[in-house]
Amino acid sequence: MQIPVIETERLVLRAFRDDTDFEPYADFYASELTKYYGGPLDRSAAWRAAAAMMGHWVIRGYGAWAVEEKSSGDFCGVVGLWFPEGWPEREITWAIVEHKQGLGIAAEAAIRSRAYAYETLGWDYVYSCISAENIASIRLAEKLGATLDRQITHKTRGLVLIYKHASSPSN
User: Fold this and answer.
1) Which residues contact 49 (CB under 8 A, 6 or more apart)?
2) Which residue, among 37, 94, 34, has the nearest Cα to 65 in the 3D structure?
3) 14, 72, 86, 92: most buried, per Cβ within 10 A?
4) Which fold would CATH assign to domain 6-124?
5) Cα(112)–Cα(80) distance, integer angstroms
6) Each residue's pLDDT tens digit, 8-33
7) What percent of the chain has pLDDT over 70?
8) Interatomic CA distance for residues 80 and 56, integer angstroms
9) Which residues, 6+ apart, have CB-to-CB distance to 51 below 8 Å?
């Protein structure tokens, strides 16, 4: 499966690269910041999480991209489309490494991911499934214009808020 490369003004969304992306990815997943994303994880579990992310492209035909900052070439995290077995909805997911948070990277990549879901894949709707305690992600979903659709209790993540992204400003 050829993972498409897409760009925004400041970012390149591309396939994950073990040689440049794994170290910052593993460092990120070792931190408490990842408690809303299934972490913290040790290195071997972080590697399996990265492999699952890339395998998602093969199984589903879409997935999350590694986010690279054009100006520096830095790995910034992962953003994209995600729907593993047992997950409540096809979603836009984001996880940005700590030193790149607060720069608008997640929003910029999520907007481009949403456009890909609607324009390239032809989806009618896409969601973001967010831990009720993850205030930063809730704010980002709302900034992107997503609205709270419902909440569920997930077997491993607890209370999850499901935000629906409009396919256009009028939806």
Assistant:
1) 29, 38, 41
2) 94
3) 92
4) Aminopeptidase (3.40.630)
5) 9
6) 999 999 999 999 999 999 999 999 88
7) 98
8) 11
9) none
List the structure tokens of 81.
């489309």
Which candidate, 84, 100, 101, places its Cα nearest to that of 157? 84
Residue 92 gets the label, from left (phi > 0), alpha (psi -120 to 50) or beta, of beta
- Would you list the domain boundaries of the chain? 6-124
Instruction: Encode burial over 39-73: b for 16+ CB neighbours within 10 A, e otherwise.
Output: bebeeeebbebbeebbebbeeeebbbbbbbeeeee
How do residues 49-86 score in pLDDT, each as one tens digit? Answer: 999 999 999 999 999 999 999 999 999 999 999 999 98
Cis preceding-peptide flag for 169 (omega within 30 of 0):
no
First to last CA, the chain: 32
